Amino acid sequence: MENTIIKKLVILGGGTAGWMTAAMMARSLAGTVDITLVESDQIGTVGVGEATIPPILNFNRALGLDEAEFLRATNGTIKLGIQFENWSRRGESYMHAFGNVGKNFPFCDFHHFWLRSRASGHSDSYWDFSLNYQAAKQNKFAHLANIPNTNLPGLSYAYHFDAGLYAQYLRRYSESKGVKRVEGKVCDVRRNHHSGHVENLVLENGQVVEGDLFVDCSGFVGLLIDNAVGSDYESWSQWLPCDRAMAVPSESAGSIPPYTRSIAHACGWQWQIPLQHRTGKGLVYSSSHWSDEQAREVLLGNLPGKPLAEPRVIPFRTGHRREQWKKNVVSLGLASGFLEPLESTSIHLVQSGATRLVKCFPHRGIRAEEVAEFNRQSRVEMERIRDFIILHYKANQRRDSDFWRHCESMDVPESLQHKIELFRATGKVFRDYDDLFTEVAWQQVLIGQGVLPEDHHVIADGLSDAQLDDLLQSLKTLIQGSVRQLPTHEEFLSSLLAAG
Ligand code: FAD
Fold first, then answer.
1. What's the CA gap between 328 and 158, in Å, rounded?
2. Of 52, 154, 234, 403, which sits most exposed with the smallest number of CB within 10 A?
3. Binding residue numbers for FAD
C-alpha cells in the first residue's frame, strides 16, 4: 500500500475514545476519508471517566458544540480544580486549581513574592491568591474572562460529565456528519502476510469491515495494537503503585461543588465527582496492599450519598504502548496506555492524540517519518504527565502505612527528581516543552505536598516591604471582591440549562 491514498478509516471501539475520535475525524476529514466505527454492545465500555481539564473546551469548540446543549446532554457540571485531601499529611488539604495564581511579573512568577512574604513571617496561604480556588470553595461560578477592571485572567474551567452520555452525544454528532456505525463483536483480524498491516475486521455475524488505516479504541484489551500488530506495553508500575479501581455511582449529597475531590486513604485514594443528578465515586488502590474486600469497606464507609449500584472492580496497568502507532494501527484511549485518573488526564490524551492524528494524517501511504513523529510526541506527552502524577505520591509526608512509606522512599524518574530538587533549593520550576501542566500547576502541587523552597527569586526582593504588603493585600481584596459578585454554581447551571 506504499502509495495508496488513505480513503477508508476504521475506528474500533465506541467508548469515549472511539466517539471522540470519530467526531474529530468527521469534523476535519469528512469528504476526503470514509469513516466507519465498529462497537460491540455485548462488550460495552469501561463506564468511568467523568472529570476533565480545561483543554476540553477547545475540543468542544473545535467541533462547534453549544455549551448549554452539551451540559444538558451529559448531566455536566463545572470543574475549577481538584482538591487533594490527606495527600501531604492526614487532615491537610490543598487544591490544584486551574488558571493563574496572583499576578505575573516579567521573568518572575508570583509565587516568589509569596515565598518572600512567607519568609518574613506572613501567614497568607498561597491559595488566597487563586481566583479559581476562592470561587471553588465558595461554590461560585460564571463565565469570567478577566477579573473586572483589570487585565488579570478570570476563571479557567473544565467539566465533570457522564462520559457514557458524552459518547452518545458525540455519536449523534458523528453520524450526522457521515460516520457509519457498525454494531458487532470483532472475532478475527486479518492482516496482509507481506506487510503485516491490518486489512479487515471480521465480525461474529460474518460481516467484514475493510480499512486502510485503523484506530484502535478497543479499551484495555488493545485488540489491534496489541493482539494484531504487537506493540509492546511499557509498565510504569514501579512509580505508580495503584493497579485497581472500584467505582460506584451514588446519590448527590446536597450542593454541587465545582471541583473534584481526591481523598487519600491508607493504601490509595478516593475520587468524588459531582454531576447534576448523582456523584461519581470510586477508589484507586494498590492490590499489593489492599484486598478488594478491604477496598470495598473503605469505599462504602466513606460514601456520604446512598450507592446507586454495586461497586465494580476495574483492574488496570499504568504505562503506555512503546509505539502508539504501529504499521497501519493507531491506538487511542485505554488501548494506547493508562495513567491513573488522579489528574483527570485520560480524556485529554484522547483529545490530543486524535488532534495529533489529524495533523499527521497520512495521505499517500503511511510514511515511517510521520509514524515516528506521532510516536515521539505521544511518548513525550505521556512522560510529562506521568512525572506530574508521580509527584503526588513521592512528595507525601504520611508515614502511617507501608504504602505511603514505600512511595516516599521509591526512586522516581530523573526528570522529576531534578524538578523537585530545583524547586526545593530555589523555588524555580519550569514548564518543559510539550508539558501539559503549567508552572502554576507544578507550583501548587509542589507547595501543596509540602515541598517548600529554601529561597525565592531575587526579583522578588525588588519590592520594599510596604510595596509587597500592598501587592498581596490588594490582590486578596480584588479576588474576594470578584468572587462575591459571582452567582453560585447551581444558579449558573440552572440559568444556562434553562436558556435556549
Ligand atoms: P472503553 O470505554 O473500554 O471502550 C472500548 C470500546 O471498544 C467499547 O465500545 C467496546 O465495545 C469496544 N470493543 C472492545 N473489544 C471489541 C470487540 N472485540 N469487538 C467490537 N468492539 C469491541 N479519564 C478522565 O479523563 N477523567 C477521569 O476522571 C477518569 N477516571 C477514570 C477512572 C478509572 C477507574 C478508569 C479505569 C479510567 C478513568 N478515566 C478517566 C479514563 C477514561 O475512562 C477512558 O480514558 C475513557 O473512557 C476512554 O475509554 P476507551 O474508549 O478507550 O475504552
1. 33
2. 234
3. 14-17, 186, 334, 347
Domain locations in the chain as residue ranges: 8-50+162-237+318-366, 244-315
Residue type, 485: Q
What is the 455 CA–ligand 1 centroid distance (Å)? 44
**Torsion angle of alpha carbons 52, 38, 319, 369, nearest 10°?**
-100
- Total length of the chain: 500
Indicate if ligand 1 lies below 6 Å from the C-beta of 223: yes
Q: What does the alpha-carbon distance between residue 167 and residue 16 come to, in Å, rounded to a whole number? A: 5
Q: Are 444 and 95 in contact (CB under 8 A)?
A: yes
Cell of 104: 505575573
Could you list the residues known to form a binding site, using ranges.
Answer: 14-17, 79, 186, 334, 343, 347
Which one is catalytic: 7, 79, 306, 394?
Answer: 79
Tell me, in angstroms, the distance from the centre of ligand 1 to residue 13's CA.
Answer: 9
The span from the CA of 67 to the CA of 75, in Å, is 12
- Indicate the CATH number of 8-50+162-237+318-366 among 3.40.190.150, 3.20.20.70, 3.40.50.10190, 3.50.50.60: 3.50.50.60
Residue nearest ligand 1's atom 53 by CA: 219
Diameter over CA atoms, the chain:
79
306 belongs to the catalytic site: no
What pLDDT digit, counting tens, does each position of 339-370 carry? Answer: 999 999 999 999 999 999 999 999 999 999 99
pTM: 0.97
Å from CA of 332 to ligand 1 middle: 10
Which of the four pLDDT bands, split at 50, 70 and 90, describes residue 500?
low
Ligand 1 proximity of 49 Cβ (cutoff 6 Å): yes
Q: Is the ipTM of this complex over 0.95?
A: yes
CA–CA dist 25, 361 (Å, integer): 10
Give the cell for residue 305. Answer: 450519598
